[in-house]
Amino acid sequence: MAKLTMREATKLKNTRHVLGISGGKDSAALAIYIRDTYPEIHEKIEYFFTDTGAELEEVYDFLDKLEAYLGKKIERLTQERGFEHFLTMHNDYLPSPRQRWCTLMMKIKPFEAFVKDDPVVTYVGIRADENREGYVSQKPTIQAVFPFIEDGLVRDDIFQMLEDTVGIPDYYEWRSRSGCYFCFFQRQDEWLGLKRRHPELFEKAVKIEKESGQGYTWVQDRTLEQVIERAEEREKEDKVKCLKNKQASVRWQDKIRYDEDDDDPEDQACVICSL
Ligand code: SF4
């Protein structure tokens, strides 16, 4: 995928400009940044959100807020067939970091169907302080622009921009990234967060795991029940440590601002899901 500068992108004729909103902080901040800094590009951009059908309701609330701020529609790319259909197609093997068919089927293919073979410039929210590539399309018709890298914006700028406009998505209080409720990139404490905040979704994830092929689990070598058990134990230990250290209570918005777990370089290819 060819890379362009903002200046080069602005000059292109007969080209679509698209920006995929994942529900995460960086793509939302990028849309806000473009609206406020490059109004001529904002005019042309088609904002879109690829709905896997397994999103958290907090994501939809956040999209509504963002849409209101942008003053433009965020196109929702919905799919006729959901995760269960693709799971059957993959012989009931759960997706995993190594077999990430979910991203291909539920994110990349709908995106490619949306842009068709049109000449397209896609705006990507990778920041200047990150070292990851993001989703690289093989389509020769797609070119990419990285405005945050070009303009030197870093993590703190992104949080500030969100705090000053639409706020940080609520799910960041218990989860470090957007994406499907059952995403296997979740940490143990995030699974626990899912169980507490969305018990029905957690139960659905347990059911899918139990019915999956050859005893596959969402988390390597551990069932979700075991994951929760471990997470609860760790939570107790952390509380004791916290009491011992008499840590002052910190706003969750500030805590996550300096917790860079969502920048895990291991899940580079998931950038399309959670950036
Ligand atoms: S969010 Fe996670 S589970 Fe959903 S498509 Fe992306 S990698 Fe797969």
Automatic annotation (TrEMBL):
According to its UniProt record, the EC number is 1.8.4.8
- Domain named Phosphoadenosine phosphosulphate reductase: which ranges? 17-132
Source domain of life is Bacteria
Residues spanning the membrane: none
The UniProt entry, under SUPFAM superfamilies, shows:
Adenine nucleotide alpha hydrolases-like
Q: Which residues form a coiled coil?
A: none
Q: Name one Pfam family in it.
A: PAPS_reduct
Please name the top-level EC class of this enzyme: oxidoreductase
Q: Which GO terms describe its molecular function?
A: phosphoadenylyl-sulfate reductase (thioredoxin) activity
Q: Which UniProt keywords apply?
A: Oxidoreductase
Name of the protein described by the UniProt record: Phosphoadenylyl-sulfate reductase [thioredoxin] (EC)
